[in-house]
Amino acid sequence: MAIITVQAIAESINIMGKRSGGAMKERIPGPIQEMAQEETAAGATYLDLNIGPARKDGVELLPWVVETVQSCVDTPLCLDTTNTDAMAAGFKVVKNKTGAIMNSISAQPERMEKLIPVAAEAGCNVIALLWGPDGMPRDSNERASMAVDLMMALSEAGIPNEKMLFDPIATPITLGADQIASGLEFLMMLQDIAPGAGSTVGLSNVSNGVAEHLRKYLDRTYLIMLMKYGIKTAIVNAYDKELMAICKGERQDFVDLVHGMMDGNEPDSSQLTGAALEHYKTYKVLSGQAVFSESWLNL
Ligand code: THG
What we know:
Number of helices: 11
Oligomer: single chain
Strand order of the largest sheet: 7-6-5-4-3-2-1-8
Low-confidence stretches: none
Shape: globular
Order of helices and strands: EHHEHEHEHEHEHEHEHHH
Bound molecules: (6S)-5,6,7,8-tetrahydrofolate
Number of strands: 8
Radius of gyration: 19 Å
CATH superfamily: Dihydropteroate synthase-like
Helix content: 40-55%
Distance between the termini: 30 Å
CATH topology: TIM Barrel
Structural class: alpha/beta
């Protein structure tokens, strides 16, 4: 089988993060610059700079974070905030605008109105988040209809499909495997909806609420499942070396195992050991063939 890779959008420069959050609030460049260098060295294609809602000082904070990072690395940036004024202010100082990502435009009319002109002007890539006026889509059809709305509005502004990254919104395994299946189903439909468009997902959403030491197993196997349907980018923890190896196409044996199972080929699990067995058990849970509990790897 052909080698598949995923462009990693490194998630750790984040207002909620231990190292980066305090540094952002206090405007201390050092920790943020170190993280930018570490994430870049780990193989990140983009650096997500997430200031959250930043209601008070976002228009000042995001440009500061952008300039802080740009002064030490050339890695393309992914600006992540729900504050539309901060997003516009951040893009003003981005050096490589056409290589950057706006994270994100959702299917909420006021966000579309404010941000689409900013994205069109910058010529950047855009994450089209499938989150509507009524919140989270319930199934793949609702995802498809939101995707059509977003694609039409982006196209009208002159943004080509190739600059769009659709995010079907990953949901935690604790909410059940049906929602996970519906996100995957949407990815299967994407090239019919928006030919040439890309995709992304906040990977670690899948393991939200699960004990910290177990999260990485869910994230890694889920990424391999997304790769079957051509996920182009993913927002990931670049400090997880094994996950980055999957992104870089260096774990072909595990990709073949999980994709084989997705095609209905049941391996002889008594022959599996180590990480292969972990992927096997985790796939069973993520696909809904086994019920999720925090002891899934021990069963
Ligand atoms: N889709 C899109 N953008 C997104 C998300 C998405 N942006 C935000 C989020 N989801 C993805 N980013 C993160 C960033 C950090 C963590 C998870 C997702 C995270 N942080 C550590 C934790 O909570 O354990 C804390 C790290 C620390 O303390 O340093 O998990 O879905 N388009």
